[in-house]
Structure formats: structure tokens, C-alpha cells
């Protein structure tokens, strides 16, 4: 047995006994790409299932506050809850954003809740492959429900929909919020909508806009019609109905045999992420090939073939 | 000579004579991934240079109107101008967005301006590899300046900065616009800022916020300090100063020998894009491998290795 295997063995033992510090350590090892983390993942992957809810939306929509309220709803029903908050990795911007996570500290004393922030390395705004790996660890640890909250808009929304069973898009009545959803093309990937800060003016209008847009949308698998929930996360108004909506979507997936397709899509996303990461690393280290592409001596395809040659990268 | 080579030869001849229809045809062939397009690219890549300006920012910031004004400034100076507008590919949302491009139609009669919309296939919100290929064609056609306008926020901003010589971030005085820039981590990649719609309340405040944030930012190559320009694209106010700012940044790159590094970064981006696209396609076609990953029988890394095996993909 190698040192790494025996370290993994010991950590695995504590992990399976439900030691939260072992979970935290495992997450750190996986996030940093440590071999012991890889070994752990190999043993734990695909062993358990949680209801995975992706929560996304534009900055300032109140995603963290809403997540905080949804945790309370899940706890009322006796569920054990894991939370992954994916943040931009920039040291320049990172600090300030984390501020509004402090609200979630109230769950700190609750052993049924585990909250973890992840910096999305490499792919700014996107869900790193490390996030999916962290999700696998949280599932193996035995959480019943896992919320994955992503900051930002654009690619990360598409990513979250590939990873989660249920995707919740959080909007507000603020002018342009709906427009932004349409422009970013996230309308198609949301399973449910929350119009948060519904106490602000314009809430009814955005609900009507969403309804009109959804009427034109292509049909969903199993005939699912994405519902829209008005919420005020700050007071908790509408959050219970939203939680029941999340549950209804999960039951819809089960009833129509769609859960398996979601899990396959997540695996596909993981494999793609690995290839993308390899491509990035190998391209970084290939100054000469890249220079020849820049001079027009080599096509990007020829350079890519050379980089992926297993003889060059044993 | 194969049929493709002779078709490419004929198109190339017209392309080099400056036939705009040949350019349009070449762009279509490249965008659709047609072999004749690949052949053309091979002959034309890396042959010429334009000043490439990336224009990005949140939806509704007025990027198209500002681009329209910048085209006029470039034309005043006798430059030939190409424009690439990268749009989300969703057929559900695509139609409406293109509306505000109609404004640019005024350049339709000007042979010194060529405007092309590109759907970003595959990577929603991101700059497709096809965009960089289109850029290479526009450069080869002999434009002096090329504006690349991206819709949306997030990953596409980072992509544009890797492709362009100069990256312009367009903000507005709207509440949350600056916050969004900080959260998305795009502060670091913008070379210049425009606070557009400066006639709206709050313009001075956002300039102060940007200045404070930039003071904390890490130093830029060659000691560049990103300037901030107030503009009203609708009336043209401030656009001449902004254009001079773009030119000053380009001269800064030349003076500090940084232009070459930008071109290398673009080539690197192209190679990475190719590998990412291959990964996506091969993973789509590998249902069995993906199912084994989902069941925990295979790690994503093992599946990726199998997919990239050249023996399996000659």
C-alpha cells in the first residue's frame, strides 16, 4: 500500500463515520487536485444520491439569502443539507463578495448543515471540474439535499443546469433583469423561476413577461411547465411554496424516469471538463507550437493534435 | 488538385481582389466548419494585422450604439473597418436581440465598413473558436481596425480579452452595473472603461467607484493605467476622446513590445478552443463510457484518456 493509499484509507474511515472534519479535509484535497483526493474520489464516487438543486441568477438577486431560507425549509423536513457556493477566484474581487455569506453563519451550530465556498479555478465564472468532484463528496457523505449556488451569469448557468437535478433561476423586479435572462439564454435551462424582492415595484410585470416568454419556449422533457414563484427572501415570504416547487420538480424527474439522464449529463460534463483542463494546461506549456500557430505556419487543429499525442504526454 | 482545393483557389482569388461577396462566402464556410473554409484559413492565417478592439459589457449598456459611433470615428481617419457581433445562438431569444443592430445599417452603403453577426455555437455566451477564425479572415481581407462586440457577461469577457489587442468594458450609471463588473471579475481584463449613458443620474459616482477599485488593482503590463471615459453614444458625446483612448492603448502595446504577446495569447486560445470542441464532440458520442463514469466504475480522467486515444479516433 502506498503512502497515499494509506492516507486515503484513514481519511475514508473517518469520512464514513460521518466526521465533518474528514469531509472538510477531503474537499480541500480534491479542490487542490491532491493525489489523495483523487484516490478518495475513486472510492466514493457514484455511491450515494442527493437531491441536487442549482441556484443561479444575476448578482444582487438575493441568491444567498434565498438559499439561507431554503436551508431552513429543508431542515424543517428533517433533511441533511450541503451547500456549495461557487465564487470567482479573483483575489481582487473575491473578498467583498463573500460578505453576504455571513448571513448563512446562523447554520454554523447546526450539524445537519454543511456550507462550503469553492473558488472556481481556471474557468472564471464557470463551474470548475473541482465543483462536480466536491458535489460527489457531499453526496457520498450522505446529505439528502445539496444546494449549489453560482455567482455571475452566462456560462455558469449552463454549467449548473448540466450538474444539478433541478435548476432555479432567481430574478428580481429590477429593470432589465428579465431582459438579461432572455439575452443570456438561460430561460431554456431553468426548471423553476423565483421573482425575489417581490415587495419592490414591477414584480407582477416581470411575472407576466416570463409567462409570455415561456409560452413560446420549446416543450420540456416529460411535459414540465416551469412555475414562477414570487418570493421575499428577506422575510421568508413565498419560500415554503418555492421549496415545495423544488420537491415537485424532483418527483417529476422520478415519475418520468428522467433522473438517470441528469446523472449521465453530469458525468458527461465532468469528462468534458477534464479534457478542457488538459487542453488548457498543455497549451500553456507549449510556447513553440503556439508561436507557430500565431505565425500561420500551423493550424490550431494541427497544434491540438500534437498536444494530445499520448507519446508526448505519457 | 482536389475539388475542395480548386474551390478554395477560386474563392481565394476573388478574396484577394477585395471582393466583399468572397469574404462573406468565406466567413459562412468557416462558420459552418466546411472543409473549403478550413483550406482557406490555412492559406490566409497570420498574413495581415488589424487593430482588434473587443467591446463588452452587460446587456443594455449600449454597446451596439457605441460601436456604431466608433465606426464613424475610424472612418473619419480613413480606416477600413470590420465588425464582428457575437450573439447567443438560442433561436428562442436570438431574434429580438438583433433588433438594435439595425442602427448599424447606416454603414450598409459604405464599402469601407463590413459588419457580420456570428452565432456563438456550442459555447453559449462564449466566443466560439469560429469567431477567432472569422477574425483571421477579416484581418486577411485587409481591414485596418476590427471591432468584436460580445453580448452578455461572464466567460465571454475573459474570452474577448484573450482575442483582442484592446478590451473596452462598457458600463452605465445604472445601479449595480459597477458591482456586476466587480463580481464578474472583468475589472482586471478591461484596458479602458466607458461609462455610457452618462446623461443619466449617477455617472460621477460610478466613475469614483471605478477609480477606487482600480487603485487596488494589480499593476498592468508596461505600467498601463486603464482610463475611464464618460460617453453618451446616442448623441456621440465623448466618443472622439474614447476613440483616441483606444488608439493610445494600441500605441502603448507597440511601444512596450506587448503586441506579440497578445497575438500569442490569441493563438493559445484557438488551440484550447479546438481541444475543448473535440472533447465536447467525442464525449457526446461516448454514451457507454459516460454511463460507466456515472456509475462510479470509471473516473472522468480515465474516460478522458480513452476518448483522446488517437487509435480510437484516427
UniProtKB/TrEMBL annotation, chains A, B:
Task: Please give the organism.
Answer: Thermus scotoductus
Q: Molecular function terms in GO for this entry? A: GTP binding; GTPase activity
What this protein is called in its record is Methylmalonyl Co-A mutase-associated GTPase MeaB
**Family listed:** Belongs to the SIMIBI class G3E GTPase family. ArgK/MeaB subfamily.
Q: Name one Pfam family in it.
A: MeaB
Which keywords does this chain's UniProt record carry?
Answer: Chaperone, GTP-binding, Hydrolase, Nucleotide-binding
**Keyword Nucleotide-binding: yes or no?**
yes
**Which InterPro entries does the UniProt entry name for this protein?**
GTPase/Isobutyryl-CoA_mutase (IPR052040), GTPase_ArgK (IPR005129), P-loop_NTPase (IPR027417)
**Recorded coiled-coil stretches:** none
